[in-house]
Specification:
Strand content: 15-25%
Structural class: alpha+beta
Number of helices: 25
Shape: extended
Helix content: 25-40%
Length: about 750
C-alpha cells in the first residue's frame, strides 16, 4: 500500500528533504558522540582538586566511581578508602589535569594528609598518574557547565552568620579572617575560649550557607552563641561593640532569600553529612530563605535536622538513587512507624510490662503520677491489619494491601478511629461502609462519639459513630466490626496473623466464604435479626428514585436474605449513595424470602444454600415472561429488569452473535472455581486482566453477575477495556443460557 502511494519515490524524497535540517554535527561527532557530559567521566580519570585550606593549592585525584555525576575520588598516592572524597562533578573545586600549571598555581598534597606519605612518594605517584592520564585525557567538555565565580566585597574582620561547616545542624557567628584574592576569602568560626584550634574554611561569594548578620533573627531561627560568650542572651549589636568589629553589608548576599520553590513536607534524597557515601530519604521540615531543614530518615542513630542550601550539590530529587542504581537508605520501621505518621501516640504513653521500672516515659514529670493508673484502661497496644485475611464484599483487597501492618499504641478511641478511617477509604463505596459501621453498637460498651468521614465520586459523607474507650472492649469491638463488614474476624484487631489465618479464610472464594461463615458462626434466625434491626432503626418510606439497577456480584447463599443483610447479599440494588441503607435493604429483600428464611433455621442452610439460587437463574432463563412466584414484591422492579435482561440474552444476543464467535462450554460456569475463571480470561484477548480476577477471588457464579457498571467500578477499568471484557463475559452468559439453563 505504501509502495503504490507514489509513482516516483525519488521525486518524493527530493521534494520532502529540500530545505530540511538534520541534527547538528557536534552532537554526533567529537568527544560527546551523543552522550551526556556526566557519562564522559569514567573510572580511572584524573582530575585536580583544590585544597580545603589553600585556594591556590591543587592535587591530582582519581575517579573511583561515578554515580550520576557524583564522583568518589581518591587522592593520587593515597588509595586508602578511608580517605576517599565524594564531590559532584559541577563543584568548582574540581579542575582538569594541568589546570594548576597553566594558571601558575601550586601542586601539593592535601594539607591535612601531607604527612601520610613522604615527599618522594607523593611526587612519584603524581608523575605516574599524569603519564597514564595523558593516554586518555578527560574531555574539557566535562567542565563547560562549571559556574564562573563572582567577586566579593568583604574585608577582613567583618562578621556574618554561617551554617556550621563541621556540624551542619545549627548556625553560628563567624568572622572573615583572611582575604586571598577577589574571589576567595577565609571564614573562621568565632570561639572566645581559644582552647581548641580555630575552625576555618575557604569560601567564595556564592558559597552555600553564608548569611548576613541578623538573618536568624529576621527568619525566626535560633543562632548559637559563640563558645566562651558569657551572656545568656546573644545580641549582635552588643557583640559587635564588644569585639570592635563590623557586620558584613547585606549587598554581599544578593540571593539570601531565594527558596527555589521548595516547601515544607516535600521529600527528596540527601547525603548523610556524617557518612558522605550514604544517601537517605529526607523530608523538608522547614524552609527559611534559601536554607532547608532536612529530617534524614532511616538512620540507625537519628540526627538533628540537617541544614542545607537550596543549591547544595548534596540533595537530589526523589528517584535519583534508583535511576542511577545506587543504594538508598530507606525509612526503617523501627524509626518511623506508621502510627508516628498518624500521630496516635498520646502524651500519656503507657509503660509496657516488658519495660524496666526505671525506663523513661514520654510524660511530663507533673503528669506521671496522675496518668499512671489511667493508661492501662484507656490505652491499647498495637492493632494489626492482616493483609492475607479475607476482605469481604465491601473492602478492596488491593487497597487493604497498601495499608500499614499495624496502628498504635495509643488511646483506644484514637487508634480505632484511625484504623476505621483506613478501612472506609479502602472500600469500593466508602459511603456504604460508613453506614454499616453505624450499626456496630452495644449498650454495655463504654463509648465516646467520633466523627468519621468518607469521600466518593466527589461527594463527602460524614457520620457519627460510637467507639469504645477501654482496652478490654477493643477486641470485641474489632470482631463486631469485621462481622458487620462480612470479612474475616482477624482482618484487623489485636491478633497478628503471620501466614495462615486460623479461620482458613484465604482458601475460600468470595461466593462461598459468606456461606461458610454463616454455617460456622451460626447466626441467629431471621426473626431475631428483624426484631433487633427494627429496634435500632425502623424502616421509613423511601422516596421515589430512578429504577436503574446495577447487577452486583452475589456474596452469599439465598438464605442470606433478611432485613439486616448487607447490600451485596441481594441480586440488585439502587446505585444511589445518598439512599438510606435500611430503606434500601427492606426494598431489596422479598417477602417470600423472609418467610422462607424465618421458617427454616440456619442448620438447614448447607442443604438449601446453592440449589435454589441455581434454580432461580434457570427460571429466569427458561421463563422470561413469567415472574418468580417466590418473589412477588420484585415483580415491578427487580424481576422485570431481570426478565428483560434475560430475554435480551436469550433472544437478541443469540441472534446477533456470529457463528464463529459462539462459545461452547465443557462445564457449567456456575461450577467454575476462581482458577477456572482465570484460565478462561487468560485464553481470551483480555488475558492482561486475569490477575484482577485472581486478586478479587471471582468464581463462576460471580462472573455471571458481572455487568459493565460493576466491571468499571470494582475493577477500576476505563470504558474501552471494560467493554472488551464484558464482551467475553456475555459470550459465557449466552453459552450458559443455551447449554445449561434448560
Amino acid at each position: 500500500a505504501i509502495k503504490e502511494k507514489y509513482s516516483d519515490w525519488a521525486e518524493f524524497l527530493i521534494k520532502e528533504l529540500t530545505g530540511s535540517r538534520t541534527a547538528p554535527a557536534n552532537l554526533l561527532e567529537g568527544p560527546l558522540k551523543g552522550k551526556n557530559t556526566v557519562d564522559l567521566i569514567v573510572v580511572g580519570c584524573i582530575l585536580e582538586v583544590r585544597d580545603d585550606s589553600e585556594p591556590s593549592v591543587y592535587w591530582a585525584a582519581q575517579v573511583q566511581c561515578n554515580v550520576g555525576g557524583r564522583l568518589c575520588l581518591s587522592y593520587v598516592g593515597l588509595n586508602d578508602p578511608a580517605h576517599y572524597r565524594w564531590m559532584f562533578y559541577l563543584d568548582n573545586r574540581l579542575r582538569p589535569l594541568g589546570w594548576a600549571k597553566e594558571n601558575n598555581l601550586s601542586m601539593k598534597p592535601p594539607t591535612d594528609r601531607c604527612d601520610l606519605r613522604s615527599s618522594s612518594e607523593w611526587t612519584e605517584a603524581l608523575d605516574q598518574a599524569t603519564a597514564e592520564a595523558l593516554n586518555s585525557p578527560l574531555p574539557l567538555e566535562v567542565f563547560k557547565d562549571h559556574a564562573d565565580l563572582n567577586t566579593h566585597s568583604l574585608r577582613a574582620g567583618m562578621k556574618l552568620e554561617m551554617v556550621s561547616p563541621v556540624e551542619p545542624f545549627h548556625i553560628l557567628p563567624v568572622s572573615v579572617t583572611k582575604i586571598y584574592n577577589e574571589y576567595y576569602f577565609q571564614i573562621t568560626v568565632d570561639d572566645l575560649t581559644a582552647e581548641a584550634p580555630p575552625t576555618s574554611v575557604v569560601c567564595h561569594a556564592d558559597s552555600p550557607g553564608i548569611l548576613p548578620v541578623q538573618w536568624c533573627l529576621k527568619n525566626g531561627v535560633g543562632l548559637e552563641r559563640p563558645r566562651g560568650f558569657e551572656s545568656q542572651d546573644f545580641d549582635w549589636a552588643d557583640y559587635l561593640k564588644h569585639t570592635g568589629t563590623e557586620a558584613a553589608p547585606d549587598v554581599c548576599f544578593p540571593n539570601a532569600s531565594q527558596s527555589k520553590g521548595f516547601c515544607k513536607d516535600m521529600w527528596l534524597e540527601a547525603v548523610n553529612p556524617h557518612q558522605p557515601a550514604e544517601l537517605c530519604v529526607a523530608r523538608i521540615t522547614q524552609v527559611k530563605g534559601r536554607l532547608l531543614w532536612l529530617k534524614l530518615e532511616g538512620l540507625t542513630k537519628p540526627l538533628p535536622d540537617c541544614i542545607v542550601d537550596v543549591e547544595s550539590m548534596n540533595i537530589f530529587p526523589v528517584g535519583w538513587c534508583e535511576a542511577n542504581g545506587y543504594p538508598l537508605t530507606h525509612l526503617q520501621k523501627t524509626v518511623c512507624l506508621p502510627q508516628k505518621k498518624i500521630a496516635v501516640v498520646q502524651p500519656e504513653k503507657q509503660l509496657a510490662p516488658s519495660q524496666p521500672p526505671d525506663a523513661p516515659l514520654n510524660l511530663c514529670p507533673s503528669m506521671a503520677m496522675d496518668t499512671g493508673l489511667v493508661n492501662g484502661k484507656y490505652c491499647c497496644s498495637q492493632l494489626f491489619i492482616n493483609h492475607r485475611c479475607f476482605s469481604g464484599p465491601y473492602l478492596n483487597k488491593g487497597r487493604i494491601a497498601e495499608l500499614p501492618k499495624a496502628v498504635g499504641p495509643g488511646k483506644c478511641a484514637v487508634v480505632l478511629k484511625e484504623i476505621l478511617t483506613m478501612l472506609i477509604n479502602s472500600a469500593y463505596k466508602p459511603g456504604r461502609v460508613l453506614r454499616e459501621l453505624q450499626m456496630v453498637e452495644d449498650p454495655q460498651w463504654n463509648c465516646q462519639e467520633e466523627t468519621l468521614k468518607a469521600k466518593y465520586k466527589g461527594k463527602s459523607y460524614r457520620s457519627t459513630m460510637r467507639i469504645v474507650r477501654t482496652a478490654d472492649q477493643v477486641s470485641e469491638f474489632c470482631r463486631r466490626v469485621c462481622e458487620r463488614l462480612q470479612c474475616c474476624q482477624n482482618l484487623f484487631g489485636p491478633t497478628y496473623v503471620s501466614d495462615t489465618c486460623p479461620e482458613n479464610c484465604s482458601s475460600q472464594t468470595k461466593t462461598k466464604y459468606t456461606y461458610y461463615k454463616k454455617r460456622k458462626v451460626g447466626r441467629p434466625s431471621l426473626g431475631e435479626n428483624a426484631q433487633d434491626g427494627d429496634m435500632t432503626k425502623p424502616a421509613r418510606r423511601r422516596k421515589k428514585r430512578k429504577a436503574i439497577f446495577v447487577q452486583k456480584k452475589r456474596r452469599s447463599s439465598i438464605v442470606g436474605y433478611h432485613t439486616t443483610e448487607s447490600p451485596q447479599d441481594s441480586d440488585y440494588y439502587y446505585d444511589d449513595e445518598e439512599e438510606d441503607f435500611e430503606e434500601w435493604g427492606s426494598e431489596a429483600s422479598s417477602n417470600s424470602l423472609r418467610e422462607e428464611a424465618s421458617s427454616h433455621s440456619f442448620q438447614d442452610a448447607p442443604r438449601r444454600g446453592r440449589p435454589p439460587r441455581r434454580a432461580a437463574l434457570q427460571r429466569r432463563a427458561t421463563h422470561p415472561n413469567t415472574s418468580d412466584r417466590s418473589s412477588p414484591r420484585r415483580t415491578t422492579r427487580s424481576v422485570s429488569c431481570s426478565q428483560n435482561q434475560t430475554a435480551n440474552h436469550t433472544n437478541t444476543k443469540t441472534e446477533s452473535f456470529e457463528e464463529e464467535d459462539r462459545l461452547v462450554l465443557e462445564r457449567n460456569p456456575l461450577e467454575w472455581s476462581v482458577s477456572d475463571v482465570v484460565e478462561f480470561i487468560t485464553s481470551t484477548d483480555c488475558a492482561s486482566l486475569a490477575k484482577i480476577f485472581q486478586e478479587q477471588d471471582i468464581d463462576g457464579q460471580a462472573l455471571l453477575l458481572l455487568t459493565l457498571p460493576t466491571v468499571q467500578e470494582c475493577m477500576d477499568l476505563k470504558l474501552g477495556p471494560a467493554i472488551k471484557l464484558c464482551h467475553q463475559i456475555e459470550r459465557v452468559k449466552v453459552a450458559f443460557y443455551s447449554q445449561y439453563a434448560n
